[in-house]
Structures are given as structure tokens and as C-alpha cells.
């Protein structure tokens, strides 16, 4: 099950398309969907979580709490819509493209991909691009 919650004035268009895509992405990694909850929020909301739970006094685009057990992908993913907008501008891409990247980034972490080293980061980008390309693929 995938849930979308909104703590800001942003609302995802076509939630069903996103749910189908996320599910397809998980299945393409030979994993099963458990329960994913996305919370779309602003910088202030995400900053509070970053300070309170992770002891990081910085702004970020995504914070994820991984509840995956075995091959069943579950977790809570918090996304700052403000950061995504800024990053889209910084990376010279569209807001929708950057949003998809961030949405699937958390899921790829749950599937076991890391991004701490340069090599891991390259693999993560490749996986994100692969999944973004699947967005409108019907199963």
C-alpha cells in the first residue's frame, strides 16, 4: 500500500500513476511492496524532523525512515517540495523530473542501494534514471 500525505499546499497530480510506477519499480528489483507513506512538506517541516530525529541542522530534500523487512519494502518518506523546486532549478531540470527522482530515490535506498561513495552514487543515479524511464510503462 502506498499513501500520500500533504503538509503543504502541494498536491501530487495523478496519484494512481505514481502508485503504479512505484509498485512497478519495486517489482523490477524483485522486491514486494509493503507499506510506503510519502509526506510532502515544506523546508521548515522537514528541517524539524532532520534536527529532532537525525541531529542534522541542515535543509534537505528527502528524509526516509526504512521499515523494510527482507524483500518487503516499507517506510516513511518525507519530501520537501521547496527543496525539490530549488534543486530542479540548480540541476537545470523540470520540477516533475526532479520530484520523480526524489520519490524513487528513497525506494532505491530501501532496495539496498547506497549513495555515500562516488561509485555507489553512480549506481544510484543509474537506478533512478532506469526507474524514471519506466514512469508511463503499463504492466
Q: What structural class do helix, strand and pairing data support? A: alpha/beta
DSSP summary: helix tally: 5
Per DSSP, what share of the residues sits in E-state strands of 2 or more residues?
Answer: 15-25%
- How far from one another are the termini? 17 Å
Overall pLDDT: 94
The count of DSSP E runs of length 2 or more, i.e. the number of strands, is 4
Spatial strand order of the main sheet: 1-2-4-3
Tell me the CATH topology.
Answer: Collagenase (Catalytic Domain)
CA gyration radius, whole angstroms: 14 Å
Description:
This protein is of the alpha/beta class and 139 residues long. The chain has a single domain, classed as 3-Layer(aba) Sandwich (Collagenase (Catalytic Domain)). Helix content is 49%, strand content 21%. The chain has helices at 15-28, 43-54, 81-90, 95-110, 118-133; strands spanning 2-6, 32-41, 62-66, 72-80. A four-stranded mixed sheet has the order 1-2-4-3, sandwiched between helices. α3 packs across α4 and α4 (95-110) crosses α5. The longest helix is centred in the C-terminal third of the chain and has 16 residues, at 95-110. It is globular. Keywords: Cytoplasm, Endonuclease, Hydrolase, Metal-binding, Nuclease, Ribosome biogenesis, rRNA processing, Zinc. It is found in: Cytoplasm. Its main location: cytoplasm. It is an enzyme of class 3 (hydrolase). Zn(2+) binds at residues 105, 109, 115.
